[in-house]
Input
Amino acid sequence: MMEVSIDGVLVDQHSRGIIDRLHLHRRPDGRVERADIVDYKTDALTEPVALIERHAPQLNAYRELTARALRLPLADVRCYLVALHTQEIHEVPTPPH
Output
């Protein structure tokens, strides 16, 4: 899927955003078994750790809202940052719950 709007309540606060790309992995019966969230970033940061730390709260909010909407465990929703400046892809770790 291309851009997908997402919104919901997280920790008593309304959250809203746009997922750049949402890829749904389906079983043969059509049921979603996992999802990948891809977010493109134009930051000039070249250090992957700094980029992930900067954007992890946003991506983890998207992860939680997507997991709820699709009734998936958080671990089955993976988040990736595509750093356009360095042309690298970085996975945002799933937070412990």
